[in-house]
Amino acid sequence: MLRIAFLTGQSNPACWALSPAQTAFLERLERGGREFHACNFPYQMESPSHEAVPLFVASVYNSAQYLLSRRRTFSERYQAAVQALLSRRPHTVLLAGSCGLELFNNLCLSSTWLNRVSVFAFGPVARRRPDCRHVLVQGRNDGISRMFFNSVHHRVDCGHMDYLQQEEVVTLCDSFLNQVAASETHPGAPLKDTACE
Questions:
Q1: Is residue 70 a contact partner of residue 108, using CB atoms and an 8 Å limit?
Q2: Is the dihedral of CA 57, 60, 66, 71 positive or negative?
Q3: Residues near 12 by Cβ (< 8 Å), separated by ≥ 6?
Q4: Which of 22, 35, 132, 146 has CB 3.0 to 4.6 Å from 18, enough for a Cys bridge?
Q5: How far apart (Å, rounded) are the C-alpha atoms in residues 66 and 60?
Q6: pTM to 2 decimals?
Q7: CA–CA distances in Å: residue 112 to residues 43, 116, 159, 177
Q8: What is the pLDDT of residues 49-90, one digit of tens each?
């Protein structure tokens, strides 16, 4: 059973419930052998219901979380919660949107945990690629992500806020999940190479 969870910045730091767009995205990925985590980072099950916040407010909160995640206290505070999530299944795929990739990197997970996780990063905003199996998807109109990554695995026709509504992103994510599941079922089989653009 492959576990799948979102890891994105919090538009509202008091809420980690999945947004309607995230829930709809997961519904389109439903297949046998997949299990979806019911909430977003930091993976505490008790959360207020999702409420949309103005884009400017969301941007401020996400930017602050991006910067605060660079502090050592970030990994000290959240590493155990992420390890608890990863420990529930042999392998987990994290759907890292925007600064979610930076948050993941700054958790400073050991190689033991990195071997148990793969990352599907869309609109990636981070200082580097993760040290685990991953794929980077970037919108052709996503100037924010392009400031951080010039070379990615796939480019799609969208901007920074539109990934989860794109059929092509659903297809790419579904394909990545299938490849990860196959490699976990047959450990000797390498994950299919994906050229960077």
A1: no
A2: negative
A3: 51, 53, 58, 61
A4: 22
A5: 10
A6: 0.90
A7: 20, 7, 35, 20
A8: 766 766 766 787 778 888 999 999 999 999 999 999 999 999
